[in-house]
């Protein structure tokens, strides 16, 4: 996917693995003043599935201010919303008991 994005002609957007290594990052290297945005077309879901649908944010990449869309797959979950704030919730009860894809920060 990264190679296909980078092979597109007429675009200043570069695709690469993001800093956390859990997704694709799009970096607009054109230096223009407009915000880069990715949308799925028609009934497509590829951009959303890759967590790339949305608008870029300003970020310093290699000492250059760039528009970046980070397709990170990390999520933050507030466990206090699961019930009594004083309750003792075992992690083994979350995600069907699977540790796969979960990281507690």
Pick out the low-confidence regions: none
Rg from C-alpha positions?
18 Å
- Overall, the morphology is elongated
- Give the total of beta strands: 6
* Sheet of most strands: 4 strands, antiparallel
- Strand arrangement within the widest β-sheet reads 1-2-6-5
Count of runs of 4 or more consecutive helical residues = 2
SSE ordering:
HEEEHEEE
Mean pLDDT: 81
Distance between termini?
29 Å
Helix content: under 10%
Strand content: 15-25%
> Helix- and strand-based class?
mainly beta
Could you give the topology of this structure?
Blueprint: H1 2-6, E1 13-17, E2 24-28, E3 37-38, H2 46-49, E4 54-55, E5 57-61, E6 64-70
Antiparallel strand pairs: 1-2, 2-6, 3-4, 5-6
Description:
With 105 residues, the chain is mainly beta. The protein has a domain at 2-70. 9% of the residues lie in helices and 25% in strands. The chain is built from two helices and six strands, in the order H-E-E-E-H-E-E-E. The chain has helices at residues 2-6, 46-49, and strands spanning 13-17, 24-28, 37-38, 54-55, 57-61, 64-70. The strands form two sheets. Strands 1-2-6-5 form a four-stranded antiparallel sheet. Strands 3-4 form a two-stranded antiparallel ribbon. Strand 5 and strand 6 form a beta hairpin. The longest helix has 5 residues, at 2-6. The protein is elongated and about 55 Å long. It starts with a helix and ends in a 35-residue tail after the last strand. The relative contact order is 0.16. The model has no long low-confidence stretch (mean pLDDT 81).
């Amino acid at each position: 996917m990264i190679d296909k994005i980078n092979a597109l002609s007429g675009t200043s957007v570069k695709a690469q693995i993001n800093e956390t290594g859990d997704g694709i990052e799009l970096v607009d290297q054109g230096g223009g003043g407009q915000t880069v945005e990715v949308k799925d077309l028609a009934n497509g879901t590829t951009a959303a599935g890759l967590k790339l649908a949305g608008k870029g944010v300003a970020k310093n990449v290699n000492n250059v201010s760039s528009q970046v869309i980070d397709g990170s797959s990390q999520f933050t979950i507030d466990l206090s919303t699961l019930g009594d704030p004083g309750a003792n919730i075992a992690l083994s009860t979350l995600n069907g008991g699977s540790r796969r894809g979960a990281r507690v920060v």
